[in-house]
Amino acid sequence: MDGRTSLFDAEEVDSFRSRRRRPTEGELDTVIGTALTRVRDGDLRIRGSDLVVLARDDVDYEAVVDLLWDRERGSWTAPADVLAAVRRTQAALPASTPMLDRLRVSTSVASSLDPLRFDLSAGGVRRAGEALIVAMVDGLPAVGAEPGEGRLADRLWPRLTRRPSTAERRAVLNAALVLLVDHGLAPSTFGARIAASVRADPYSVVGAGL
């Protein structure tokens, strides 16, 4: 495998094609299989762990992503030059710039500075994903108190709101991040899945979702 080739099981293709029910006019018929997520009996599990329990127990978003990516604890850092470039670019934007546009800009800047962005190996995608997530958070300007250290949810809070940062509020934000690691078939996720299925680089996949 060269990392950019899609191979489909012939029996699965035949099974899909021979299904009796056909979509009605105007209906999109979509089936997505995943070895990562299971929805059954009212719970949502990723790699066997109950996502709701992880959120309730205040497990760090970063740890949940590491679980999803099937790896030991990551460094959860971004290259210094990438972070500096993202911050300079964000500072040049008008204060009224919508958050979604800011995230698109951060993604484009991070992509332009990554010489290995077309590395589609599992390790390469994880590396790019981690650096991009960190750059998207730490690159945003603060709107509340000056961001400190700590987990991503702690650093993200003062970049989203002027409301005081409390442990309870940061825990709620972390829980929201955890619960959204699987977006199901939301339009943004569907677009990202399509981009990934044709072997787009990680930054282009995130860009498609945005």
Please, could you describe this protein's structure?
The chain is mainly alpha-helical. It has 10 helices and 3 strands; from the N terminus they run αβββααααααααα. It has helices spanning 10-17, 51-56, 61-68, 80-92, 99-112, 122-138, 152-160, 167-179, 187-197, 202-209, and strands spanning 37-40, 43-46, 49-50. Strands 1-2-3 form a 3-stranded antiparallel beta sheet. Helix 4 packs antiparallel against helix 5 and helix 4 packs across helix 6. It starts with 9 loop residues before the first helix and ends with a helix. The mean pLDDT is 87.
User: Low-confidence runs (pLDDT<50, min 5 residues)?
Assistant: none
Care to count the β-strands?
3
Shape: globular
Gyration radius, rounded: 19 Å
Structural class: mainly alpha
Report the end-to-end length measured between terminal Cα atoms. Answer: 29 Å
Instruction: Output mean pLDDT.
Output: 87
**Helix percentage:** 40-55%
Total count of helical runs of at least 4 residues = 10
Strand order of the largest sheet: 1-2-3
Biggest sheet details: 3 strands, antiparallel
Beta strand %: under 5%
The arrangement of helices and strands along the chain is HEEEHHHHHHHHH
